[in-house]
Design a protein that fits this description.
With about 400 residues, this protein is an alpha+beta fold. The chain is built from 16 helices and 12 strands. The strands form 4 sheets. Strands 1-2-3-8-5 form a 5-stranded mixed β-sheet. Strands 4-12-9 form a 3-stranded antiparallel β-sheet. Strands 6-7 form a two-stranded antiparallel ribbon. A hairpin with a 6-residue loop joins strand 10 and strand 11.
Length: about 400
Amino acid sequence: MTPQPSAPALDPTAPERRYPLYSQEYAAAPHAAYEKMRAEYGPLVPVELSPGVPATLVIGYPQALRILNDPVRFPADPRQWQRTVPDDCPVKPMMEWRPNALRSSGDEHARYRAANTFSLDRLNQHRLRATVQRVASETIASFSPRGTADLLTEYAWPIVFRVLNEMLGCPADIGQRVADGMAAIFEGVDAAAGNAMLGQAVYDLTLLKRENPAEDVVSWLIAHGSDLNDEEMGHQIVTLFGAGIEPTTNLITNTLLLLLTDDRFSGNLHAGSLSVRDALDELLFADPPMASYCVSYPPQPVDVDGFVLPPHQPVVICMSAANNDPTIGASPGVRAGNRAHLAWSNGPHQCPAKSHAYLIAETAMVHLLDALPEMDLAVPEEDLTWRPGPWHRALASLPVVFPPVTPVSES
């Protein structure tokens, strides 16, 4: 569509009009920020992902859905854009081109996605559930006698880390380097060093699995007929870890917060009228752990409902705001069974591992609630801190208290 002369342009050269997505204010109250954005800009908002890095944030649901399903006008290839940002740009590792499905289109996208879906689909769901249950039991036993825990650092993160390593056949030492590198990238603190650490770790894992294949996702990627070379293998593994560790950890932690503080769930969970899966659906709809991502880079000016988007500039989908777009009748409330949200993206780049993430999160939470049914927050909810960053909705900690429980020894 040819832009009309009267169409307002989202000017990336006007920094005073950009909303900073890296601020603590945004992290603390994103939905209040979305309301202000809608009132001032409508469905497309000029933002900064980090200081001096402009982008357009899509907060309208219909606009987000159209963009996600239009890879021709909104391709995911950032190579033209990344030439314009310095190597130490804190958000570059999360946005730069990689030979993987997330950053490719056409035949290359099909090739990479086929290898990933083939490998993920080979995972045995019963075996995966048993792995989560075993890891959850061991993790709970490490803190249950104390009567206190940080459910982020002592429960959600260790479970996701260990389960993902087992899924991918990754030894703990390599997995720790992967996790440290991913954390630096998501936080945007020393992201370049984190990216280098991550690259070396996944290269080491690729070499290990070429020499010692087993029944795991990385070995199946290597065996797939797409014949991925070492560089391509590394970037598939980066994508799997990136989509696995941080978002799934936050999915578990944030849903546990919802279960602990929202009477709709805490009052009904054990009565049977609402389930952990209902809480997951509500969280993914109302406040997804990846609040914004799905970045595209239109190669030419594009008119979207009267707004002209500049070429080669990032267009970021805000799944959290789009899910709650008042123009589509979105409203707070329990969305049991409603999965029309964008938390897993949509279109050709929709997450191929959502069933695995659901299983890991649901199993981990059910196991914890069964083991420690009398948990409460250790601090007032308003004292919890949300970590700043343009992508995630992530707590700094989730401290809880409960009656101490002595683990039953297995003899």
